[in-house]
């Protein structure tokens, strides 16, 4: 087998063989495929697309390019993945809530991408929390806490690690086949028995239309199921932040408020919808009632505490999280320039404002300031009087706060009352 044969088949518009795709994935992992060949391969798939059968073959080949975890636990092993949004800290609530309901969640998460936040960046805000433990510790925390949220080790789907870096610089990220195989290869390598996917659509998501989101949801569900992992997807609304906060510390705080029963709202509701589907698939009766009980009764918070402590964070984080999270130097209200109802929210603009405040990265080497961001963001449809707050800004410097205030005032349009659409738009699978 030779890289050129696989690339030439793609160039001619022919389907590569499953064996060719397997060979290519292992060549990506062991370095025998060059970066130029990887780029040509990615462009070939972008332009020509793969059959469903070959998308599954590529996903399995990328999963098998590294270590595939196996578990020996007394309950089902499940996980969720979100395609990314703003104020989306569902993982921080969902993983411990699921653990409290008797399933195990070895959650391999990512960092922020573009305007969207990343779960690992949020967890980095917790002093001591190790997002990259060795496998023995990862396994121990999953066993003892029921959940552990960590980064992918170098051994997990190395073919994806390499191909993703090449796609990033060759304008080949936007391919349904490549996105599907990339996301699923890492998730499936964690040895899952069930998966739920949160495919976001709207102003704060990568997918701006229902059609795009539905196509991705269908590709992910059919591929994951064919790869042997029972999977459901939800297309969910991202026309406004899920939590009313954006930024790493602020989102940990939002998640802790839901986990400790201080707040409900969309973060709570979305956690229930995604979690109930996973528990139902795992054969657990009354899934929604169990999740509500775990969240309202403190069992989910207790699992969060065990996970944080198991991964190096403070022992009493759940009891006293405010003490451990850094606070920004400049905290100011953002006044509404006119009176009106919140007619639309440009989620991408809000996310980029947080990145500019230092809450995300513009290049890989940027250091994140965990304390900065937005809190108390108004919701669609709310009535706001001139001068009343649209949100609160958390910044490191006055000039940065000033700039972000202008961006937020432009991103939140005030006018006639707008209907916020349903949080869950569609279920696939
Ligand atoms: N996230 C991934 O892990 N891979 C992609 O291709 C896109 C988003």
From TrEMBL:
EC number: 2.4.2.4
GO cellular component assignments: cytosol
Record-linked Pfam families: Glycos_trans_3N, Glycos_transf_3, PYNP_C
SUPFAM superfamilies to which the protein is assigned, alphabetical: Nucleoside phosphorylase/phosphoribosyltransferase catalytic domain (SSF52418), Nucleoside phosphorylase/phosphoribosyltransferase N-terminal domain (SSF47648), Pyrimidine nucleoside phosphorylase C-terminal domain (SSF54680)
SMART domains xref list: PYNP_C
Domain Pyrimidine nucleoside phosphorylase C-terminal: residue ranges: 341-415
Pathway assigned to this chain's UniProt record: Pyrimidine metabolism; dTMP biosynthesis via salvage pathway; dTMP from thymine: step 1/2
Catalytic activity annotation: thymidine + phosphate = 2-deoxy-alpha-D-ribose 1-phosphate + thymine
Broad enzyme group: transferase
Sorted UniProt keywords: Glycosyltransferase, Transferase
Domain of life of the native organism: Bacteria
Single GO MF descriptor: 1,4-alpha-oligoglucan phosphorylase activity
Gene Ontology terms describing biological process: pyrimidine nucleobase metabolic process; thymidine metabolic process
Role summary: The enzymes which catalyze the reversible phosphorolysis of pyrimidine nucleosides are involved in the degradation of these compounds and in their utilization as carbon and energy sources, or in the rescue of pyrimidine bases for nucleotide synthesis.
Description of how the protein assembles with itself and partners: Homodimer.
Family: Belongs to the thymidine/pyrimidine-nucleoside phosphorylase family.
Name of this chain's protein: Thymidine phosphorylase
Organismal lineage: Bacteria, Pseudomonadati, Pseudomonadota, Alphaproteobacteria, Rhodobacterales
The gene coding this protein: deoA
């Amino acid at each position: 087998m030779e890289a050129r044969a696989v690339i030439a088949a793609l160039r001619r518009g022919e389907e590569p063989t499953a064996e060719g795709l397997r060979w290519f994935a292992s060549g990506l992992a062991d370095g025998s495929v060059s970066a130029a060949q990887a780029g040509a391969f990615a462009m070939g798939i972008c332009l020509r697309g793969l059959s469903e059968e070959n998308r599954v073959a590529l996903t399995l080949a990328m999963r098998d390019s590294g270590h595939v975890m196996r578990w020996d636990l007394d309950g089902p092993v499940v996980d969720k993945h979100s395609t990314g949004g703003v104020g989306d800290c569902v993982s921080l609530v969902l993983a411990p809530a699921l653990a409290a309901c008797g399933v195990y969640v070895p959650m391999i998460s990512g960092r922020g991408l573009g305007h969207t936040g990343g779960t690992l960046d949020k967890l980095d805000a917790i002093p001591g929390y190790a997002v990259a433990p060795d496998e023995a510790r990862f396994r121990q925390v999953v066993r003892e806490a029921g959940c552990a949220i960590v980064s992918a080790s170098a051994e997990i789907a190395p073919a994806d690690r390499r191909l993703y870096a090449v796609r990033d610089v060759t304008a080949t990220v936007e391919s349904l086949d490549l996105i599907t195989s990339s996301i699923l290869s890492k998730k499936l390598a964690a040895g899952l028995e069930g998966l739920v996917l949160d495919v976001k659509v709207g102003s704060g998501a990568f997918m701006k239309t229902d059609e795009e989101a539905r196509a991705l949801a269908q590709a992910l569900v059919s591929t994951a199921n064919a790869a042997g992992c029972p999977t459901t997807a939800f297309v969910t609304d991202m026309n406004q932040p899920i939590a009313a906060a954006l930024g790493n510390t602020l989102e940990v705080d939002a998640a802790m408020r839901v986990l400790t029963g201080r707040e409900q709202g969309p973060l709570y509701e979305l956690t229930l919808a995604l979690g109930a589907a996973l528990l139902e698939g795992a054969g657990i009766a009354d899934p929604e009632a169990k999740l509500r009980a775990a969240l309202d009764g403190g069992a989910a918070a207790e699992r969060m505490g065990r996970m944080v402590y198991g991964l190096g964070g403070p022992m009493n984080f759940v009891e006293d999280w405010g003490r451990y999270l850094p606070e920004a130097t400049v905290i100011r209200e953002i006044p509404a320039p006119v009176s009106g109802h919140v007619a639309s929210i440009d989620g991408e603009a809000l996310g980029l404002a947080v990145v500019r405040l230092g809450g995300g990265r513009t290049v890989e080497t940027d250091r994140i300031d965990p304390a900065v961001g937005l809190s108390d963001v108004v919701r669609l449809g709310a009535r706001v009087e001139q001068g009343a707050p649209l949100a609160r800004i958390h910044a490191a410097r006055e000039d940065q706060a000033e700039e972000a205030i202008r961006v937020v005032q432009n991103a939140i349009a005030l006018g006639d009352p707008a209907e916020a659409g349903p949080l869950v738009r569609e279920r696939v699978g």
